[in-house]
Structures are given as C-alpha cells and as structure tokens.
Protein: TsaA-like domain-containing protein
Amino acid sequence: MQHTVTPVGIIRSCFKEKFAIPRQPQLAPAARGVLELLPPFDQGDAVEGLEQVSHVWLLFLFHQALEDKPRLKVRPPRLGGNRSMGVFATRATHRPNGIGQSVVRLEGVEPGRLLLSGIDLLDGTPVLDIKPYVPYADSIAGASNQMASQAPAAIAVQWCDNALLQAREHALRLGEPLVELIEQCLAQDPRPAYQVPPAERVYGVKFWDVQVRWHYPQPDVIRVLEVVLA
Ligand code: SAM
Structure:
C-alpha cells in the first residue's frame, strides 16, 4: 500500500547545515526556530487550544537524508560509527520513509506560526504532523535503553576573548541566545566519532546567519575562535 503525505509546515531553524545539530531535541534549549504552517493549517483554527501545551511532538521528513534503497542496518554515531545496528533499534536519519520525531518546547502560538525551542531540526525541514505532548502517556518511569541510557557527556567549551565579544554582538543583533546556542551545541562535540584532530585543524558551522569557527587545543576541549557573518 502506498500513501502520500503532505507537509503541514516548514521549519525555519537556527541550524543551516546538518553538522553540529544535537543528536536529539532538548540537548540545546537555546536552539530555536519557527514552524511556519502551510495552507490550510496557517489559520488560527488549526492551532486553537495549543497554547495550553508546553511541548509538542513533531513528525517530520529527514529531507536531506532521503534514500531510494532501504537500509536494514545503520551505524549510529552514538555507538562511535563503527558498530552496526538494526535500523529499527536506532534513531538514525537514514530510515524507511525518512520520518523523524522530536519533542520540542512550544514557546508561543500565533496564527500560522509556532515558536519552538530545544529543536534538533535543519532549516527547511518539512513537518508532517504536530501532536501535543501528553505527560501521563509519553513520560514512562523506569523505561530503559541500554544503547542510549543517558545524554552524551558534554565537553568543555572555551572562548577566545574576541570570539565571545563577536557572539554577544551578533546575539543582540539577532535577538537570539547565540552564546548559549554555541556553547550547548559545541559541548555535544560535533566532530566525527574517534576523530582526534590536530590542534591547528579548524572546524566551522553556520548558526542563523553567522559562521562559528573552533578548534580542539586538547582532545576534549573546544576553543571558539571566531563568530562572524557568514
Ligand atoms: N529526534 C529525531 C528522531 O529521533 O527522529 C532526530 C534524531 S537524528 C539522530 C538527529 C540528527 O538529524 C541531527 O543531528 C541532524 O544532523 C539531522 N537532521 C535534522 N534535520 C534533518 C533533516 N531535515 N534532514 C536530514 N537530517 C536532519
């Protein structure tokens, strides 16, 4: 049976590329975005009552990871990228039908727009459905997952003086918690698993409209070098 789905909205996100997006929602509370609803859901009626809800589930399409050939096994970054697992045992982006799910904080409800934080979604992500988080049903005391029993350990993020000044200025201009966003995302250590880069190797990513560059002066320390307009 084939079934066609149509997005109800599109995410406008602080994340402009896949690199350095946290692996799950809630890991970076300063990661904010707007879900722009598409007709006919852009009218107030579709979101009436949602202001009573603190969090929503988003079902979305991993639109930048769609593949024709289904994979049965994947190598989750969480397991170091060198152990394979059944696709249904993981939250990998390469999966049948390319459907992702994230529970995110609902910061505001406007006709045609939902204001979100704690997101792990790329800019332009098509959203297929929105459902209210239901604490008594969705939070399961005693639930376990031996592969992902707790959030990944955060690593230290340090700033060059000038980079911190730059980040504060751009935060003011954007009206966004940019310093916190950078610290929360880089603390997740975006580099590929087990890569031990030389200290002179510089990494970069675009958040909002700024380019953030950093290096690893020690294997488990990030130093932010600059935050400049992309
Ligand atoms: N919370 C979701 C889930 O469990 O289905 C996503 C988990 S997935 C492991 C998180 C990663 O998806 C992020 O680190 C980001 O790189 C990637 N991602 C986010 N939005 C995407 C999109 N629209 N297309 C492809 N990859 C995306």
Q: What stands out?
A: The pocket of S-adenosylmethionine is lined by residues 18, 21, 23-25, 62-65, 91, 93, 100-102, 120-122, 125 (CB under 6 Å). Residues 156-229 form a domain with the YaeB-like fold fold (CATH 3.30.2310.20).
